[in-house]
Every structure is written in C-alpha cells, then in structure tokens.
Write a structure and sequence with these properties.
It is a single chain. The protein is an alpha+beta fold and 688 residues long. Helices cover 37% and strands 18% of the residues. The strands form five sheets. It has a seven-stranded mixed β-sheet with strand order 2-3-4-1-7-8-9, with helices on both faces. It has a seven-stranded antiparallel β-sheet with strand order 15-12-13-14-11-10-16, with helices on one face. A four-stranded antiparallel β-sheet has the order 19-20-21-22, sandwiched between helices. A hairpin with a 2-residue loop joins β10 (222-230) and β11. α9 (280-291) crosses α10 (295-307).
Length: 688
C-alpha cells in the first residue's frame, strides 16, 4: 500500500464491494488497490457485512469456557467486541485500520438502517477512529441518489440513537440468549445436546406450535346449511348454521312447498383504494402467496434489485412515501418506459398528493419500496417477476379509486329470511392495472344479480347441505410473517397493521433469518407451503415454563422499547438493566424446578449454540421493580456470605454465580412470608 497516496484523504467505508465500486466511480477514485479504491482526494473501502461481533463468554473468563449451571448468569462487567475469526475478514480489517489511521475524515457509507449502523460503528471503534465521522444516508443506489447524499452528508452524532438501539439489541440478545441456552440445555437436555433459545426465535416457534396443537386437538362438528336457488341466484338462510339435523330438516320442510317472496332490494355504491405500497413484510407475504417463495428468498431477491439500482432501500417497515418524494414521482413514472401504456393516464394530468400515499408522520428512516426509474434490463426471470409486482403497485396508487355497486336482496319463505348479494364494478380505476391478474382483479361481470322487484315471488329449489367445522390452517411463511408483525395476531386490515407494527416481534430485516434458524435448528420443517413444528420444537416450548421467553406479545413490547431507544425516548441503560434482572429471575426459577424430564434433541454442538448471538431471548420487566428482590437482612444459611434472593418460585442465594446452590422452595417457605418471619424459620431450621 502506498502510504503517500492515502494521506489527506476522505475515507468512505461501505458495507459491500459492489457499493464501494459505484461510489468510487462517482467520486473519481478510480485507482484500484488491494482492498480499496483511491483518487481525487478519496479512498473507498468496504466491509463484508459484519467484521466484528460481541465477545464470546470464554473471552471474558476461563470460568465461562465450560458450560456449568453454577456459572450462570454470565454478565460481563463491560461488553467488548472482537474480529470474527476468518482470514478474509482479518485481512480486510487491516486495510480499513490502516486507511483510518491516515484519514482526515471518515464517511460512514454503510446500509442506512440499524444493522448497517452497528456494523460500521463496531469496525470504526475496533480501528480506533480518531477523526471526524460523517454519515451518508440514502434510500437508493442510483447515481443521482448517491450524489445527492454526498451533497448532504450528516454528522455521525445524528445517528447515535440508532446505534444505541442496535447495540442494546445485540447486548440484550447476548445476555438472554447465551444464558438461557446454557441454562435450559444443562437443565433439561441430554448431556452434550443444545436447546437453542432466542429472543425472537422462541416466541416465533411458540406461535407455530400453538397453531399446530390447535389443529391436532381439533374435533370437527357437523352442521347444516339451507340454501335455495331462485332465478339463477343462490339465496342463503339468514339463520346461518344449524347444529342439529332435526332442526335443519324442520326448517327445510317448512319452505319446500312455499314460494319465495322478495322483501327488500338495496343498492349501495362504494369506492376501493389501490393496495398500499410495499414494505418488506408485505412484499414477502405477497411473493409467498403467489409463487411460494420463502421469506429468505424474497429478501435476497429484493436486496439484489436494490443493488442493481432498480428499486429503493428494501429493509423498511412503512407503506408510505415522504412528501419530498412527491416532486420526483413524474420523472420516475416517465423513466418506466416498459410501462408507458399504464403510466400515460397518470402523467396526462396532475398527480394527486394523497395522504394514503404521502405522509411524513408514517415514515422514519426510509420510505416504502418503489422503483427508482432505472430500466430493469439486466434482471433475470424471478427478479423480473418481483420488479413487475413492485412497479404495478407503484403505478396503481396514482390511479383513481375503483367504484362499485353492491346489491343486497332479502327474501322471505314461510317466515324464514334469506339473503343474496352481488357486486358490480362501475369504474375499474386502479384495477385496470391488474385486469389480467387472476390473483388481484375481479371480473367486472362477477356476481351480477338480475333485476329483482320488491314484492315479486315464485318457486325456488331449496337444498340442505351437511358440512363440518374446519380446523385453523397451518402457517405458511407468509402468514407467519404477518403473525410476527402483529405480535402473534394475524392482522390483514392495513390501518390496524400500521398501528401494530411498533410491537411486532423481530424486524422486517431479521424475520426471514429467524425462520431459517428454526429450520436449521430442527425445530420446524416445511411441508409443501405449510410450516410444521417438529417433536423437538413442540417439546422445547412445552419445557419452557417462563412465559416471558415464549410470549409473542411480551417480546413485542421489548421490540417497542428498542424502537423508542432509536427515537431517543428510552434509555439503553434501562433496557439492559431490565434484561439483567430478568435473567437473574429466570436462572433462579429454572434451578428451583424439580422436574427431571429431559428433551431429546438432534446433535447440536455446544460451540454452535455458543455462537448463535443474533437469535436470543428478551421479555418485559419494569426497571423500577427488579424481577429478583434481594433480602439484605437475611444471610444465606448455606454459604454464610450471600444474601437471600426472592425469585418467582423459590428463594435462592445471591452468590449462586459463585457456586452456592442453596434453594428454598415456596412450597416449604411461602412467598408471602415477611423477611422477619422467613429469617426466624431459617434460624429455626439451621439452628441459628
């Protein structure tokens, strides 16, 4: 490396070599060196995603190298980072470290999101960055967007809260994941086998297990429905389902010989807006529904489209555009020449600035996924399918609403009420975009009813149909993503979806990886499009008594706190303190469990369990009320140096990390005892 060539330069650090190449070309840094580009006063280098990671337990102390219940919980006094142990990573980091030591200014060009911020900050910390750092924050990789970003570089400090949120997530995952995995593996698994427990992974598995048990325990029930056909139209009995065949037969007998009389005809006009723009989750759901793609496949596909500059930043959780995008919309539509026939009607008039599309209050770091306007000439087959999906959705939101008419016809047969309804498309509006798409469009002639007149009557053809209640359906990856987004609830309504995203489990960018982890760990399998929990997965959820570790709702509340840290509304210190209290409580509770049951799991090495940092456990607990209460005035009767701690199901010693295994079950020593009475009972038992 020519040291003279990199003096007095601005150093750009990107997350991928391909992005570094594009930025270097725009900045005029055209000289390719070993691990970086240089020229025109700039050096441009890259990471390969994560170069650094949090230290392993064994990196802190030899005592944590061996898996032992007596060493739990493991909470380092200060968390540290280290380079990932790969030669290619060490080599590239050395390049970055040398460049940083010579730079006057560093420009963080990592992906503009929480994980991207964490990746870059750790590398810069490890390389001991000494100079000013600025942030490139862009929503697409087009040349125009990159130039605009460099003209509006931001102080790195503007993104400190984003970093604190990412750091809190990583440290919290370490505290709960490392400890809970060791705790449950040592307590409930066969020797040498690992039970992998994670903050998002475990409640996600619990969602699948709960649905599977509902299906397996479902007992179908018979019911009967009465329908009748009149003037080629099917009328259904308003009474709904009959649970008794005798009742159904009586109702059937009462109408067989009586005429049908039309009692009311109502026609109501309505409007339907175009589907919202895509966020990452809704795109993954749609791709799974249409083509059976996994969440991970869809994520990789949209990431490729982003890197090929044809779509905007993908790891987003909003379906809205910021208002500053509005002036750019006409140019984007004009550049989408393959869709000229569809964009022409929009470009012929003034584009409406609807709050359903443009709303700054619904956009945080990035807006919804849309085309950039770059021609998609280089895309392959599946990439073309995804781009087509995004392009049509983008065009459709600028079309008029679909206008329709709904007709409801009520009828009477011998005192029993029947109903028929139909929908007629009056003006298709945005549905023109999808007129050849069977999954989305409605045939304008579908469900058209003949003209009925109030008071008319005539003969009809009744039928009695026996049916059975059906169990809920197994989750698909698409429906599981929706359930994760809704903290265990399936939410289809778009307004409600937006409101619940704050408490969803996982983030749009991590949910695909969580699902893949459950497959790799052997806790879940694919069966066609359906997801099934394995025996090991069901057994794991049954073993975990701590609701905090498997509740989607409670995990969603923790996600909400991480988002609040991002916004500067909550303290990272408080978040970590809550997790420390929580793991103390969990350790006490599990150690006090006298159950001898063991889970048989597939052979997973302790080393693999050790390195699974990104899929750990978290839960809700108020920082003002610690989960484990120290009873300062009561010394441990066993070791004599610790104090009693009150857990959820037992009293334990505060020095259990040092090896004291004293436990007093609430079955023998009530949790309602005052400290004075408890102390008296202990003194009586131990002769003090």
């Amino acid at each position: 490396m020519d040291n003279n060539s990199i003096e007095e330069v601005k150093l750009c650090v990107t997350e991928k070599p391909s992005v570094a190449r594009d930025i270097a070309g725009l900045l005029g840094a055209n000289n390719k060196a070993d691990g970086f580009y240089e020229g025109n006063g700039y050096a441009v280098t890259w990471t390969y995603g994560h170069l650094c990671t949090l230290k392993e337990p064994a990196d802190y102390t030899e005592m944590w190298k061996r898996w032992s219940l007596s060493s739990l919980p493991m909470i380092p006094p200060r968390f540290g980072i280290k380079l990932i142990d790969q030669e290619s990573i060490k080599r590239q980091f050395k390049v970055i470290e040398t460049l940083i030591s010579k730079a006057d200014e560093v420009i963080n060009c990592g992906d503009a999101g929480q994980e991207g911020e964490l990746i870059q900050r750790w590398v810069m910390q490890k390389a001991r960055t000494h100079c000013e750092v600025k942030r490139l924050w862009i929503s697409s990789l087009t040349d125009e967007s990159i130039r605009e970003g460099f003209n509006n570089l931001k102080p790195q400090a503007d993104f400190d809260n984003l970093y604190y949120a990412g750091l809190s997530r990583a440290v919290g995952d370490w505290i709960l994941g490392m400890n809970a995995t060791r705790l449950y593996s040592l307590k409930y698994s066969e020797p040498g086998k690992v039970l992998s427990i994670g903050r998002v992974q475990t409640p996600t598995l619990a969602i699948v297990v709960q649905r599977q048990l509902e299906i397996e325990n479902f007992k179908p029930e018979d019911y009967w429905e009465i329908r009748t056909e009149y003037r080629d139209t099917i009328f259904s009995a308003a009474a709904g389902k009959y649970k008794s065949e005798d009742d159904a037969n009586l109702a059937m007998a009462a109408i067989e010989s009586s005429p049908l009389v039309i009692t009311d005809v109502q026609e109501k006009k309505g409007r339907e807006s175009a589907p919202r723009l895509f966020d990452l989750t809704s795109l993954q759901v749609e791709c799974n529904k249409r083509w059976g793609w996994s969440a991970d496949e869809s994520l990789k596909m949209i990431q490729s489209l982003y890197e090929k500059k044809v779509t905007t930043y993908p790891r987003v959780d909003t379906t809205y555009l910021s208002e500053d995008i509005y002036p750019k919309v006409p140019q984007i539509l004009k550049q989408m020449t393959p869709y000229a026939a569809l964009t022409a009607p929009v470009l012929s008039g003034k584009i409406t600035k609807s709050k359903k599309v443009f709303d700054n209050s619904k956009v945080t770091d990035h807006h919804a996924i849309i085309p950039t306007g770059q021609l998609p000439n280089m895309l392959n087959g599946d990439e073309k399918k995804m781009y087509h999906l995004i392009a049509r959705r983008f065009i459709a939101v600028f079309y008029p609403d679909c206008e329709f008419s709904t007709t409801t016809v009520m009828a009477d047969i011998s005192g029993q009420v029947f109903k028929a309804s139909g929908k007629v498309i009056l003006k298709p509006g945005w549905r023109i975009i999808y007129q050849k798409d069977k999954d989305t469009a409605e045939d304008s002639s579908e469900n058209i009813l003949p003209n009925f007149e109030k008071g008319e009557s005539g003969s009809h053809k009744p039928s009695l149909n026996k049916k059975q209640t059906q169990p809920p359906k197994y989750y698909t990856e698409g429906s599981l993503l929706r359930a994760m987004e809704g903290a265990g609830k399936m939410v289809e309504d778009e307004e409600l979806r937006e409101a619940m995203k704050e408490n969803g489990i996982g983030r749009p960018s991590t949910r695909a990886a969580i699902i893949e982890t459950l497959f790799k760990r052997g806790y879940m399998i694919r069966s066609g499009k359906s997801l099934r929990a394995t025996d090991a997965g069901i057994a794991l959820i049954a073993t975990i008594k701590e609701e905090l570790l498997k509740s989607a709702k409670l995990t969603g509340l923790w996600e909400s706190k991480l988002r609040r840290i991002e916004r500067g509304q909550y303290s990272a210190h408080e978040f970590i303190d809550e997790l420390k209290s929580l793991i103390n409580e969990i350790v006490i509770n599990v150690l006090s469990d006298n159950s001898s049951s063991r889970i048989i799991v597939d052979d997973v090495s302790a080393e693999k369990g050790e390195t699974a940092k990104k899929k750990k456990t978290a839960a809700k607990k108020s920082p003002s009320k610690p989960a484990v209460r120290k009873l300062e005035q009561i010394l441990c009767p066993k070791c004599g140096s610790g104090h009693l701690i009150k857990g959820r199901s037992a009293y334990g010693c505060s020095r259990f990390r040092e090896g004291c295994d004293m436990l007093l079950s609430f079955d023998q020593y009530s949790s309602e005892l005052t400290p004075g009475k408890l102390n008296a009972l202990i003194n009586k038992k131990y002769g003090k």
